[in-house]
Amino acid sequence: MGARSSLAQRLALLTSAFAVVIGCSRATAPLVVERHADVALTGGASTSMIYLARTADGILAIDLGWWGHRSALTRSLSRLGATPADVRWVFLTHSHRDHLAAWPMLKRPQVFVGMAEQPLLLGSAEYRAWIPRWSERLKPTESPSADSVEIVTFSQDTAFVLGSDTLRAYLVTGHTPGSAVYLFRGVLFLGDAITYTWHGGFAPAKRHVSDDTHEAAESLSRLWPRLPRNGVRYACTAHARCAPFNAKFLKDIAQ
Hints:
The chain is an alpha/beta fold. The chain has six helices and 14 strands.
């Protein structure tokens, strides 16, 4: 048992180190609007981001972060004059452990995921990528259940009306089978469909943590024409790097 635990800890450190490489440079200023929207930064140097926005009917979250989520989420919600009980909707880009840690803090929210992602979210299927697959085998993620959250799935591009706001969901598969990205208030939340490194800039999903990098790149190329014309101002990775959504951004990804 001790050897197994030690191996699990080493793999967790490896996963963390890899996350540092793909997401160590933060740039989230476009996301923060006093009393209306905020960002909770979790996971230490890997910086798994939780985006939070106040709507007329409650708080919306995009992704739920990693370790350190409890204090980070509480502080961020406090800046919005809210508590975890006020989070009504959670939109997950995918179900890797560094994107869903805070779900036990919430009071049975609606959790939206791509349909193919649901068995992974519930822990009843395995990832193909070796780092998340072996991480789960050695130390399974605490997954939500039907009693703790209300899961809502979608299998095509879908617009969700939330009070006076509309969130648009797009399937961009490859990183995981049900990976999705979300367009909300002019910001495109790309999850890990896009990565950023200080030495390489923006790029499509990375090997070792992605089920199918070829599919991920192809999915991205099919995404851009589906977005509303002039409807995207910024694009953000799930690891706290945002940039203006323009021709330079698209060119950098294509290189």
